[in-house]
Design goal:
The protein is α+β, with helices and mostly antiparallel strands. Helices cover about 15% and strands about 35% of the residues.
């Protein structure tokens, strides 16, 4: 089931998002991918998330994000924290951590947590209002490789 999903996501038309002092990457809202959107918003998946995290979601948004050479997100003072769960479904092939592109979380004490890319991995991160995240700059060593994952914000 993973390989057909991966092929569908790889063929989607992405929109470049760029505000230089905040982020640079490509993205598409998952609601444009009907089959995948239906799964993520299904009662069964919502029950699964509640069972795993203990968190009852009221609202969830999902997007496919793609990072290539020169893409990144930055921590920003204007970013509001929130309580909830981050979902990251990794679709990336053979990614080297030295290329960047990995997701990092930082809490109020300044402790960094790194999510190393790993294909076909679902990661759930329980967030608090004082926790923020960013995606490390993808450097030139990545060449034409792209980091691809579905990101969900579950509130």
């Amino acid at each position: 089931a993973f390989k057909p999903l991966k092929k569908q996501l790889a063929r989607t038309k992405l929109v470049k998002k760029l505000i230089p002092d905040q982020y640079a990457y490509s993205e598409i809202d998952i609601k444009h991918l009907k089959y995948f959107s239906a799964f993520l918003n299904s009662p069964t998946f919502k029950q699964y998330l509640k069972f795993i995290t203990g968190f009852q979601s009221k609202k969830a948004t999902y997007s496919l994000k793609v990072f290539g050479h020169r893409d990144y997100t930055l921590l920003h003072d204007n970013e509001k924290g929130w309580n909830g769960v981050d979902l990251i479904l990794d679709i990336t092939d053979d990614w080297e951590q030295s290329w960047g592109g990995y997701v990092r979380y930082i809490n109020a004490e300044g402790t960094l947590f790194t999510l190393v890319p790993s294909e076909n991995t679902l990661t759930l991160v329980k967030r608090t209002a004082d926790m923020h995240s960013f995606v490390k700059y993808v450097n030139s060593a990545a060449g034409n490789n792209r980091r691809m994952f579905v990101e969900g914000k579950i509130i």
